[in-house]
Task: structure prediction
Amino acid sequence: MLLSSARDAHRAVHTMAAMSGPERDLLVLGGGVTGLGVARLAARSGWSVTVVERDDLATGASSATSHMLHGGLRYLEHGRFRLVREALAERMAVSRLAPALARPVRFLVPLRKGDRVGPFQLRAGLALYDLLAGRSGLSPHVLAASRQALAMEPGLSPDGLRAAGVYSDVVMDDTRIAIAVARDAAAHGAEILPRTELVAARPEPSTGRQVVEVRARVAGGVRSLKPLLIVNATGAWGDRTRASLLGMLQPGRNDPPRLLRPSRGTHLVYPSLTQGHGLVMLAGDGRVTFVIPFAGRSLVGTTEVETDSPPAEGQRRPTPDEIRYLAREVARVVPAAARAHPIAVYAGIRPLLAAEERVGEASREHHIVDDGPLLTIAGGKYTTFRVMARDVFVTAARKLKRATPPAEDGATALPAPLADGVRDEDLAYHAIEHEWAISLEDIIRRRSTRWLADDRGLAAARRMAPVLARSLGWDAIREKEEIDRFESSVRDELVMLDRALAAH
Result:
């Protein structure tokens, strides 16, 4: 979002000049959790690093997950044991780094007559899940009889219920963990530049560096950076970023083959549908859907719809078919959902690696491509962002002939967010001063859980707007425009839900 006042421009220019001189060890393109994780490792190791993000931090897949740190129970069916083991270890590592933003939750897997998975198969899968967790394990699984399952979750449909597997995973706040990673990176010297876009790049053979021009979308100022290496961590936009940069850094080179086969995952948000447990629902079409308890609500997801690489703007939005599919699936298992209306819907684009499998069965492993001055990280999943960041950083250290960094990135917890119970005005001030926020959507959607309030944060927005106005130098007209813009976005989302479910 472009800002109009002179004070906004001054603030942006001050941010861009925070690190003296143009030389950098690393320039990270992409302000999602993976790019921020790379910057955090580099800064903690004493490297000079700048993160450039075209929009707000974590506006892509990092703010549109299922809000789970998990090994991926369904990946066991496809034999991806190494990925599951790695992700389960990271589940606990990230939980320790962000204790205020992650908590263990017990999940039920209801089994019904005719399901493609039977009790023996489920029990074997849960036992393997616990085994792969090793020392990172939570409470072990059990197999509950139908009567026990209904006692735990009375809202489950009893029709055909045979039993339920019960196991543990972790529910987390995806966006606020990403913001905390950014804060930790900045505390160790990283420069974080949201709302800044790549303009041009060229090699500088005399120094072995690359000259990269970036422009602040807020203030419009253009500035040159001279990194030794560029890291492309732009997620589902990685193919386009890679082709564009290589075209500038290595003129005459053919466009590289695409690395990605992105998919859209849509989620509905309901009033709480369970007694605090999560649910794993085995759909008749072979898919798996979840009900995740988060901030007093139930997140229901997800879908798997292939998109272009990069995704077109319209492909970032959920479709009526996806909304209806999720509403139908959750009502099949929790009948009360048929009488409830979703309060929100969101969708994210996963940067899946290109493969021959169906998109719903695609691997969540990651891959690093070395193009000389450019390293591209493709694929992966939120839970393993530290592994991806570490692999990128180790690759960078080897290329620059520096000491290989330590395997761990520090046991100190990430900076904690303000508690959800603080005043809206205090939350807004903190987000502006310490978390790079400059809009109501930044604060309500990506730096708090206010977007899950009954009114979707509308009342909070009116209390926060004057704080934004004072901090950023807005006049009364600009303040009203910001409120109107936020209210319009909420209204558009609710209309989308109403229309999609009108014939449901």
Observations:
- Residues 1-17 have pLDDT under 50 and may be disordered.
- The two ends are 35 Å apart (CA to CA).
- Residues 38 and 316 are 25 Å apart (CA to CA).
